[in-house]
Specification:
about 525 residues, alpha/beta, Aldehyde Dehydrogenase, Chain A, domain 1, Aldehyde Dehydrogenase, Chain A, domain 2, 2 domains, 14 helices, 21 strands, about 40% helix, globular, ALDH7A1-like, aldehyde dehydrogenase (NAD(+)), oxidoreductase, EC 1.2.1.3, NAD
């Protein structure tokens, strides 16, 4: 079937019917949603007002006041049921992700699997929200550290991972005793509606099993920038986890700081890899290809800069260019295609602007042109671009959310490492080498300055077990695994005196009697 004849509205209608979502929730509203696969409008959602959004946040705060009293393992049971419901709806939600974002089928399903994985992680975590027992200098005293729920957690998600990022935050926030308030991207609200329906199924099962849970534990706010501003500015929201551009982070961070609220920022990433003389070039080729071209270059961890040692440059780069010319581009719902569309026309125009800037700076461009897909005028399919650059300059220093890979030659490892770190962003990174010294140096204090540093795999495709996030203009936040849960709780240091005297710390004497 050609794209011109593909009616994705019927897919959306079928999926929403299966999830029990009424048509008035996604039709007849003011927020138009288009699938990048065809450019076709697939929904028109009602938007919440700023006043109603503020009222919804108040209700979420009230839900938090009840939910924090539920024992953490009981809270984990809700997240376990959410994981079960996601498993049951994996095919439907995965297809909806592909329809709304343009991801190939395996990536759409993979995003839902990521949600399932974080639910599994969070269930185990619900029995491990541990503190510390700390040595005290005072006899007959005990000092300890405890962790407590924080409040109604704000979640602002981006279009490229429209549901996985919500789950990273929500699964942890819920087991930590918080409510959540979610403002999804205006480009991908349909997947948010579906996810909220799946959560409500899990919640219904939880209550049916005679567990206690308040209403408004998970709140969805559909709307534009002004709704995000309500969430950021509301005094009952102690933490906002915001995923998006560095420009967005610069707007969100100071507003939260102004009222002394916390921010968890996951922003831009101008990610790089180094290909050393000893690299396995077959493995490198596969790793680079996925990291640079997967999701049409629209991951925050997409590989955008590649430093190749001059001894292997003439072997690897022509092979990469050949792969770029032969990669299959087209309807992501059809098997065999590896690269789907850009999200919209604006993304395409930014890509073309970057390509022109690279040419002006002396870059040799292979690919980057628009690929005609069945005369779908409003769908923006492009051939991924590989650009051989003389130096790291101009557009190489900026993140362009498109499949552009800048390739540069190096001869000295220390120079490559310096150039690797010489960008404002610091999300993800990798090195391809079989030299132990290079690998260990890359991971050391003087190596990669990113939040994620890999050896012999690309910078993209992180698992949920590790904390996800980066440094510098990437924002410094951490989501998902490891001890990222601590961001969703408040820490208290407790000292308990079980003796009959009152010794003061540091030997202070203050005898009033």
């Amino acid at each position: 079937m050609t794209l011109a004849n593909l009616d994705l509205t019927q897919d959306v209608k079928k999926i929403f019917s299966e999830l029990g979502i009424k048509p008035e929730s996604y039709t007849g509203g003011t927020l138009a949603v288009r699938s990048p696969i065809t450019g076709q409008e697939i929904g028109r959602l009602p938007e919440i007002t700023a006043t109603d959004a503020a009222a919804a946040i108040e209700k979420a705060h009230a839900a938090f006041l009840e939910w924090r009293l539920v024992p953490a393992p009981k809270r984990g049971e809700l997240v376990r049921l959410l994981g079960e419901e996601l498993r049951a709806s994996k095919e439907a939600l995965g297809r909806l992700v592909s329809i709304e974002v343009g991801k190939i089928t395996s990536e759409g399903l993979g995003e839902v699997q990521e949600m399932i994985d974080i639910c599994d992680f969070a269930v185990g975590l619900s029995r491990q929200l541990y503190g510390l027992t700390i040595a005290t200098e005072r006899a007959d005293h005990r000092m300890m550290e405890t962790w407590h729920p924080l409040g109604a957690i704000g979640i602002i998600s981006a279009f490229n991972f429209p549901v996985a990022v919500w789950s990273w935050n929500a699964a942890l926030a819920l087991v930590c005793g918080n409510a959540t308030v979610w403002k999804p991207s205006e480009k991908t609200p349909l997947t948010a509606l579906a996810t909220q329906a799946i959560f409500e199924r899990a919640l219904s099962r939880y209550v049916a099993e005679r567990n206690t849970a308040p209403e408004n534990l998970s709140t969805l706010l559909i709307g534009g920038r002004e709704i995000g501003e309500v969430l950021v500015d509301h005094e009952k929201v102690p933490l906002v986890s915001a995923t998006g551009s560095t420009a967005m982070g610069r707007a969100v961070g100071p507003r939260l700081a102004q009222r002394f609220a916390r921010s968890l920022l996951e922003l831009g990433g101008n990610n790089a890899a180094i290909v050393a003389p000893t690299a396995d070039l077959d493995l490198t080729l596969r790793g680079v290809a996925f990291a640079a071209m997967g999701t049409a270059g629209q991951r925050c961890t997409t590989l955008r800069r590649l430093f190749v040692h001059d001894s292997v440059y003439e072997t690897l780069v022509p092979r990469l260019a050949k792969a770029y010319q032969s990669v299959t581009i087209g309807n992501p719902l059809e098997g065999g295609n590896l690269v789907g569309p850009l999200i919209d026309k604006a993304a395409f125009e930014k890509m073309q602007k970057a390509l022109e800037a690279a040419k002006f700076a002396g870059g040799k461009v292979t690919g980057g042109e628009r690929v005609n897909q069945d005369n779908a005028a409003d769908a923006y399919y492009v051939r991924p671009a590989i650009i051989e650059m003389p130096t790291q300059t101009g557009p190489v220093l900026e993140e362009t959310f498109a499949p552009i890979l800048y390739v540069m030659k190096y001869s000295d490892f220390e120079d490559a490492l310096r150039l690797h770190n010489d960008v404002p962003q610091g999300l993800s990174s990798s090195i391809f080498t079989n030299d132990m010294r290079e690998a260990e140096t890359f991971l050391s204090d003087r190596g990669s300055d990113c939040g994620i540093a890999n050896v012999n795999i690309g910078p993209s495709g992180a698992e949920i077990g590790g904390a996800f996030g980066g440094e510098k203009e990437t924002g410094g936040g951490r989501e998902s695994g490891s001890d990222a849960w601590k961001a969703y709780m408040r820490r208290a240091t407790n000292t308990l005196n079980y003796g009959r005297t009152l010794p003061l710390a540091q030997g202070v004497k203050f005898d009033v009697i």
